[in-house]
Amino acid sequence: MHKVICIDGPSGSGKSTTARAVAEREGVLFVDSGALYRIMTWRALEAGVDCRDAAAVAAFCKGVKVDFVVKGNRVAYEVDGEEPGDRIRTPEINANVSPVSAVPEVRAIVTGWLREMPKLGDIVVEGRDIGSVVYPDSPYRFYLDCDPDERARRRQKEDAGKGFVQTEAQVKASLLARDKIDSSRKTAPLKVPEGAIRIDTTHLSVAEVVDAIAKAAGV
Ligand code: DC
Prior knowledge:
By secondary structure, the chain is α/β, with parallel strands linked by helices. It has one domain: P-loop containing nucleotide triphosphate hydrolases (Rossmann fold, 3-Layer(aba) Sandwich). Helices cover about 50% and strands about 15% of the residues. The protein has nine helices and seven strands. The chain has helices at about 15-25, 35-45, 55-60, 90-100, 105-115, 130-135, 150-160, 170-185, 205-215, and strands at about 5-10, 30, 65-70, 75-80, 125, 140-145, 195-200. It has a five-stranded parallel β-sheet. It has a two-stranded antiparallel ribbon with strand order 3-4. Strand 3 (about 65-70) and strand 4 (about 75-80) form a beta hairpin. The longest helix has 17 residues, at about 170-185. The radius of gyration is 16 Å and the shape is globular. The structure holds 2'-deoxycytidine-5'-monophosphate. 2'-deoxycytidine-5'-monophosphate binds near residues 37, 97 and 129.
């Protein structure tokens, strides 16, 4: 059985940066679970589906096809033979991904995909419910937390690099709104998984967080 390292936490807590660094340093595959919910949202918006209509979203998402391809040390997602890239990182997707990811049928599809990934090798998966729902039996489960102002600062800088110019206050409002939906939804809410190691990253460098995870995971 392949090793599965789970990293959960709210938006901007450093999950993605940390998981990528763990993948690179430890030679395991990086898996971005949020990108799968973003792909569902992107396809739904493109098809004109109302993302607030759970039944319509559930019906539409059943037909979304994604191919999983190992590229370097990550599992890449291809839709119609192409990676979506930053098309799934727009403010419009940010505003619609939480309601889409709250739909139980969508979660069942994505969870099924994520549970297939260890066939590709050892993985580090980042998300919201990885250690609580997708891989509750993994011995390597981490929850990253961080002060909301610091999260907004990090995310604003990251988004600006992609050409999405917003103030820190706008970014903070958007990520707090997502946190609220993500942690209050009925199916697989964002929470600290029982038995997971909680790390507050507010005052830690990426290297320090990666060290803590690598040490605890024994990779
Ligand atoms: O990590 P991210 O910002 O790319 O995630 C996008 C959205 O997907 C976020 O609002 C919560 C949701 N998500 C989820 O519900 N479960 C996961 N395992 C990963 C992401």
